[in-house]
Specification:
CATH superfamily of one domain: PDZ domain
CATH architecture of one domain: Roll
Keywords: Chaperone, Coiled coil, Proteasome
GO cellular component, one term: cytoplasm
Order of helices and strands: HEHEEHEEE
Structural class: alpha+beta
Helix content: 40-55%
Radius of gyration: 28 Å
Protein name: 26S proteasome non-ATPase regulatory subunit 9
Pfam family, one: PDZ_6
Number of helices: 3
CATH class of one domain: Mainly Beta
Subunit structure: Interacts with PSMC3. Part of a transient complex (modulator) containing PSMD9, PSMC6 and PSMC3 formed during the assembly of the 26S proteasome.
CATH topology of one domain: Pdz3 Domain
Strand content: 15-25%
Number of strands: 6
Shape: rod-shaped
Length: 140
Amino acid sequence: SPAGLQNDHKALMKQVEEALHQLHAREKEKHAKDEAEALAEAMSQNQSLPQAFAKVNAVTPGSPASVSGLQVDDEIVEFGSVNVNNFQNLQNIATVVQHSEGRPLSVTVIRSGKKVHLGLTPKRWAGKGLLGCNIIPLQR
């Protein structure tokens, strides 16, 4: 009878609806998990920021440093072969710079809590030095 068919249809729709609810609930959970993971990753990145040994306190506009994207207040964690483990003084950086004239140096800085990689090519330009920035050692 037609009434029986209608009931079947209703039951079927109810099943479909429940399945959809479950699917959405799963999606929601998955989304929450993704967010939690993203957050955890962000947190662990913050903790694992390498130690900076120097800081940029001046960058001359138009200089090689400025062209490479170096900014004032960038904290230097790697400057070519110099890092926190072998850095003694600014002469270390000066030496690397002199040996790398015209060749890109890999520089890693911490800028507002994130690691930023830059390619910095020391070269002669209108100003003094090969970089056009001023770097100060960070007091430990």
